[in-house]
Amino acid sequence: MRERTIASHFVRAALRGAERHGLDCSSILRQLNIQPALLEEPRARIAPEQFARLMQLLWEKLDDEYMGFGSNRSKPGTFAMMCYALIHCHTLEKALARGTLFYSLFPDGPSITLTREGEWARLTLDDSSLWDPDHFLVESLLVIWHRLASWLIGQRIRLEEATFTYPEPEHSAEYDLLFPNPRRFAADSISLRFQARYLSMPLLQDERTLKHFLERSPADLLARPDGGDSLISQIRRLLGRDCSSWPDLEAVAKQLHMSPQTLRRHLREEGSSFQELKDHLRRDLAIYHLGRDNLPIQDIAEQLGFSEPSAFHRAFKKWTGLTPGTYRAQES
Fold first, then answer.
1. Residue spans per domain, the chain
2. Nearest 5 degrees, angle CA 185-CA 134-CA 190?
3. Is 68 helix (H, G, I), strand (E, B) or coil?
4. Calpha distance 219→55 (Å, rounded)
5. Are 316 and 301 in contact (CB under 8 A)?
6. Hey, which residues does 190 pair with through a beta bridge?
7. How far apart are CA 4 and CA 236, in angstroms?
8. Cystine design at 69: which of 43, 119, 137, 210 (Cβ 3.0–4.6 Å)?
9. How many angstroms from the chain centroid is the CA of residue 52?
10. Secondary structure class of 293 (helix, strand, coil)
11. What would the pLDDT profile of 30-68 be if each residue is shown by its tens digit?
């Protein structure tokens, strides 16, 4: 769903490079119709298109696709030229190899390598040259390379594992949108592991489709949440946007061809529950409507299945730390 919202942590992390270079981050936020005070609330969230625009503004104002996190700038257009360098390759393996070779021409940037490990392939990123205290750039690059590779072959590459050299962060629950696969922290390297069979697949894109792709990339690659085929994402798709007709847990379990007990157990293993999942979906839909519509808050509450506006106010403040009215005011 495009309504899946972005945690305020990632906004604060994205701005660290700009702050490092002395930019007025409050001005940048106001250009996005975000009041800087919104970021003081750890539970606050923003819409994905606002996040995409934030990335574009940071690239423009810093004149740097590394957003101020590298030891040297990566001039805007570098990513596009890398894409043009690999678009005529016949297979994904050759395309990724050419892409990593392209970035190796800039020795002060993060190093990216592709290796085979039997039936597995691994894309590894060396961040030793970066000033990246929140690991924002390195995680962004992993997401961008994964989604670029998937776009090149016309199908989503299923990740088997994502590894990170740093300890598991407090916001790790958000990683379901970035790396919907097993994740391992405090590992030896920062990498993505996937089946090597993808490497032999032909590229289905050309310069014509690349031109359209680059109109919104790589910002859109970062801002578009990718729940992949995780259980939570499957359930969100089954629930849909009409809160008044949501199926109950038993009906969802039946559609997923499992028992209710098995569904509850799998959700516990993913650190969630059916009620929490519905709450998060309501939260994201609420933010979606508050940011786009002129609907009265009472009407939004009704659309989300709340019998009383006061119940919606209490729930929204529990989710985001702000009341719906305050949130709408911060967004304007």
1. 6-62, 78-198, 231-331
2. 35
3. coil
4. 6
5. no
6. 125
7. 10
8. 137
9. 10
10. coil
11. 898 888 888 888 888 888 888 888 999 999 999 999 999
Q: What predicted TM-score, i.e. pTM, was given to this entire model?
A: 0.74
Round to whole Å and give the CA distance between 299 and 288: 14
Question: Is residue 238 scored above 70 in pLDDT?
Answer: yes
Q: By C-alpha distance, which of 52, 53, 66, 78 is closest to 17?
A: 66
- Tokens, residue 104: 């190796």
CATH architecture of 231-331: Orthogonal Bundle (1.10)
**Size of the chain in residues:** 332
Using alpha carbons, list the distances in angstroms from residue 42 to 46, 64, 98: 12, 27, 40
> Where does the pLDDT of residue 1 fall: very low under 50, low under 70, confident under 90, or very high at 90 and above?
very low
CB 176 within 8 Å of CB 227: yes
The per-residue pLDDT for 57 is 93
**Burial of 250 from C-beta contacts in 10 A (0-12 / 13-18 / 19+):** exposed
The SS3 assignment for 305 reads coil
Residue entry with tokens 């050309």: 206
Q: What is the pLDDT of residues 241-277, one digit of tens each?
A: 778 788 999 999 998 889 999 999 888 877 788 998 8
